[in-house]
């Protein structure tokens, strides 16, 4: 009977030692080895690399315990310098382990070529959306007499008409010739002599014409700010949208007007 009790006691002690050993080993594995192996708690914050040139990345990231790799595919932005960072993964302010590799997309040296779409006969609003979607920039809008209001009549690149399918660099500026909705009506030029600039502009625009060059002439015979000449002269027949050039009096320098 005594031997049985001693055996049970020894077994219990052995089991206790085994349990204690397992507990200690588990603690060491979970709290010491595993965190050390996975660099637990050793994270860094990813900086914002946008705009950095590729030559600046290695030292900048090395000082922060990070590395980088350039993606094969590049992008293009008119505003960014060639070979500067456009995108990155992981993004800025991400928490990563030390030594993590940051994948960057660089700006290409030369703008990629894209085919010019056909904007003729499109509404101006739609034409602007198309240009923006394919990476082109809407330039000057040139209004000409035409019954189609805000309808694109011509598309120009560097002052020349450009056909559909012609290849141009991404980010290029496209000027649009657009109808003003008035057509080629024949109008009579109103008399502007004796009016001030504000009244003259109101009359010009109200007549279906537009303001041309404004010139100033020194004179002491007409009050300052009054129109003394116009071109084309009053009574001449012109087409809708024709510019009217005016000359405005101003006091001679050194002359006091009371």
From TrEMBL:
InterPro entries xrefs: PASTA_dom
Source taxon at top rank: Bacteria
Chain ranges passing through the membrane: 12-34
Domain PASTA: 41-108, 110-180, 183-250
Annotated keywords: Membrane, Transmembrane, Transmembrane helix
Keyword flag Hydrolase: no
Gene3D superfamilies linked to this entry: 3.30.10.20
Protein name, as recorded: PASTA domain-containing protein
Source species of the chain: Aquiflexum gelatinilyticum
